[in-house]
Write a structure and sequence with these properties.
The structure is a homodimer of 326-residue chains.
Chain A lengths: L3 H8 L3 H9 L6 H14 L5 H8 L4 E6 L7 H15 L2 E6 L4 H13 L4 E4 L6 H7 L3 E4 L8 E4 L1 H14 L4 E6 L5 H15 L4 E6 L4 H14 L5 E3 L3 H13 L9 E3 L16 E3 L2 H16 L8 E4 L2 E3 L10
Parallel strand pairs in A: 1-2, 1-3, 3-4, 4-5, 5-11, 6-7, 6-8, 8-9
Antiparallel strand pairs in A: 10-12
Helix pairs in contact in A: 1-2, 1-3, 5-12, 8-9, 10-11
Chain A binds a DNA duplex (16 and 16 nucleotides) through helix 2 and helix 4.
Amino acid sequence: MTTIRDVAKAAGVSVATVSRVINNKGYVHEDTRKVVNNAIHSLNYKPNEVARSLFKRKSKLIGLILPDIANPFFPALARGIEDFFYQEGYHIIIGNSDDKEEKKNDYFETFLQNNVVGLILSTNEIDLKRVQKAKIPIVLLDRINEDFPAVFADQIQGGRLQAEKILERGCKEVTIIKGPETIKPVQERFQAAFEILQQENITVNMIDSKLSFQDGEQTAIELFKRFPHSDSVLACNDAVAIAVLNEALRQGRRVPEDIQIIGFDNISISGIVYPGLSTIHQPAYEMGMKAAEMLIGQINQEPITHLHYKFPVEFIERDSTRKDDD
Amino acid sequence: MTTIRDVAKAAGVSVATVSRVINNKGYVHEDTRKVVNNAIHSLNYKPNEVARSLFKRKSKLIGLILPDIANPFFPALARGIEDFFYQEGYHIIIGNSDDKEEKKNDYFETFLQNNVVGLILSTNEIDLKRVQKAKIPIVLLDRINEDFPAVFADQIQGGRLQAEKILERGCKEVTIIKGPETIKPVQERFQAAFEILQQENITVNMIDSKLSFQDGEQTAIELFKRFPHSDSVLACNDAVAIAVLNEALRQGRRVPEDIQIIGFDNISISGIVYPGLSTIHQPAYEMGMKAAEMLIGQINQEPITHLHYKFPVEFIERDSTRKDDD
DNA sequence: ATGAAAGCGCTAACAT
DNA sequence: ATGTTAGCGCTTTCAT
């Protein structure tokens, strides 16, 4: 390994001078700068981030905790975050929490031990007192908390859109799939949709589900058993919606003629399944980018202008609802 | 921040003694161990990984470079890797290469600067001389190279299975979708399938595609335009296969009656789409786990028993092929 | 404009 | 069984 010492020796200067040129800080004569740079190149020297990190107590590492990277909504978030930080010379340490308290705290601690300079959390509320004590920049992503910077999509609006659009398309008996109680945004979208539906003179069924494809499969089977006359379903996310789509078709129900379905998320697969899934678009990649941008702002001590950044959502109509209805 | 000094002071011992107890190394009296542990707990002391890493020139960090976490095959790999390393107290730094030389090298360098102790690469061959020079443990995942440890699924077998199964199901004109030339496993599966098909007295069409859902959409449209009489397709991966499924249905072709489709990967969505996609199962999660296990072996200097670990693949028959044919 | 030296938090000789 | 100390590679006062 070549160190700053080697470079100093090769260039015939002190380590301090080398440090000055690699950090572009303090006075250094043009001529010596050239000599040093030559040495750096010919030795192919790269400063050791760990030593830097130790001294400055700040690394170029960002901690990212999310529930499960295998859940199709999160890769897009992660990609947005990563793309932004790559530009800025930061790197991501990633942890899957499975929404388990223990894993979250574990990651939180070890991330701190690694001098990460910032944290993005897409997982349920961590013990936030700890975060405050650690005084580390943080942004919540796809999660909301009054006291912390957060980036999220407009769940209320999303839930409302689900309800309004399905109403407009003439449903008489809608089944709403309620996601896990513990996941706030999922609850919010449910609440919003539910409230609107209740005010109407239609039948509203309710069924619980978790969020994965596999869970969706179970839910779908149960759904059609319990509510065989349901003419529409509002799903807690696209994964579950697609499972319902599948099960409906499998049972010989026509989509959207017999049953209409609206999902939530607009994951990349939703435009590719048959029939295309109508859904609420959350701009996941952009949300990831924005969260990264807000975090960098904090890291660079820029003043916080918006504590919360709310993305609008959008109804994407494909083929699982009746476009030309009336 | 509480350091080893603080603990030493609180416990009335030297830093060396504290170091001995936290590392469980060297002699330390039972009584003093207790005193020290008490101090550690009451101060809530956590050793700084960065300082450790600097001294030992080894961190608890693993570098993971993959093409694109948003591509649905990779999250499962990543999850397997992460789960394994979490158990072992290691953490993952992740980089998306987009199969770009520059990004790969960038990540490689910065990972080294961060003292990662090992590397898992799911991306196209990096400048492997560099790896050798860096003398860092490495495992290739879903990629193959004679000289480096690698974990992969049996592409030849997979390609053959695609071909054999489609043949058994009575196809007369099969279109085979060839993935990017640059991605070796994708080429291998293509080659294997193609060779078998060629020996038969049937028509074999060929079309190129990239691997994402979006690319698959284009491919699907072009496919049916160029080969309207194709009665079966062998796709380079499931994402593309699902896009073809969709387009076929959209055009009013019946699956599997008019057209049969076999994918490759068995991503989680493949069992949920309608009709269920018949495909070749690659055990992505297990492959990730295995790669992590092999890497740990190297890190711990255990002797290498197998340089390469090849997972068998399996034909999963769902509804996009004719089960009860003949 | 440059260099010497201290020190970030830790581990591992070496000494006792 | 415990303590002292050098040093991992770097940055940053403080001299000069």
